[in-house]
Amino acid sequence: MRKIIIGIVIAFVVSFVLKKCTEGSADRTVIREHSALIQKQINNVGKLIVTEGYFSDAYSYKNSKALFANLTSDKQALVIVNAEVTVGYDLSKIEYQIDSINKVLKITKIPKEELKIYPKLEYYDVESGYLNAFNHDDYNKIQETVTARIRKKVEASNLRINAKNRLVSELSKFYILTNSLGWTLQYNDSKIDNEDRLEILKL
Questions:
Q1: Where are the beta strands (DSSP E) in the chain?
Q2: What is the mean pLDDT of the chain?
Q3: Is 0.90 topped by the overall pTM?
């Protein structure tokens, strides 16, 4: 009888140990699967997202060169500018940490936006003065001036806002996935516990 009891106890202990080992192994497998899914989502989002806009402007360029006494030589041109503008985020540059133990995806750095302006200039009514012809310096100054003017138009438009909205839309995929897996999404030390909190990701 004693041997039977001892056998039952040993069988129970072995069964309990095997069950715990199996459960632990299953939990580790699930965590690895979740980590792999999160890594895959990061890789899928890791792309360049670009928002485009088109802007036009007209600029009158004038320059006077003193010759002698009160005489000057003037040159001028009317410049029509049509520019393509892009605001992009290279999401392959996102920096993050995956904490499998605490089930946390922590985004530590989001790349800054990249604003690019591609102006196309057309010159009209170009007039060169005596001893004051157009040269490379003039064209460089015109290029710099019209680019600055277009940049101001961009700042006054919704292009940057639209680009940031697209950024948040892409990053919301992290929240949806982590939330569905029972993980936590953080941006540095801030916990993202709902999609509205993703607004803090707007840089």
A1: 48-66, 72-90, 95-99, 104-109, 114-127, 184-187, 190-192
A2: 82
A3: no
- Give me the mean pLDDT over the 187-198 stretch: 81
Q: How far apart are CA 142 and CA 79, in angstroms?
A: 8
DSSP code for 113: P
- Give the CA count within 13 Å in the CB-facing half-sphere of 172: 12
pLDDT of res. 59: 92
Give the CA count within 13 Å in the CB-facing half-sphere of 44: 12
Can you tell me which residue has the tokens 């039952």? 8
**54-100 pLDDT, tens digit each:** 999 999 998 777 666 667 678 888 999 999 999 999 998 999 999 98
